[in-house]
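SUBJECT: A protein chain and its fold
Encoding: whole-number codes for local backbone shapes
Chain under study, with its fold:
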Amino acid sequence: MNGAVKKILRFFYYFPSNVRNRIRYFFQGVRVGKEHETKGSLYIKNRGEIVFGDRVRINSSGKANPIGGGDRTYLQVLKEAKLTIGNDVGLSNCAITCGEQIAIGNFVRIGAGVKIYDTDFHSLNPFERTAKPEIPNVVTKPIVIEDYAFIGAGSCILKGVTIGKYSVVGAGSVVTKSIPTGEIWAGNPAKKIGMVPGVEPISE
């Protein structure tokens, strides 16, 4: 089967989910760029602002990316928070919760099962956390993922982190500190394990 036929079949296979997601975007106030494609059914809860750039590709089903790590993509933006996703970005079956600001650059790849949270969700004080009603003394700090970064499957990116341009996060990592440009980090907590090959000739 040639590439053109595969492309046509893929279009018709995912056409219903793309239509459903477009309806979700409309009612959730999501701004979507050109040539957007979503494979599968998204979960979106937008109480702030969500902006997609051009040619964003989202996998949101086990069939769309069957490497494990969840079967949908979840995007949750809390009141007055902002999630921006740049041009030519690919996301697979990941979960993003934005309590303040998450900015994803251009040409970023985010693997299956990745979780990105700019908030602690609950107070770190046990008495505030278990009070009835719970006292919402929650810490949030913006996250920035710069152009060409690659986040490996199953990783967790936590509040206040910047992942530098071209940098790579190894699969299953927990990132609690900012990663400079062109570095490879992995582990829990993530630490530098190397440099990205080929970055020097194209660095700014």
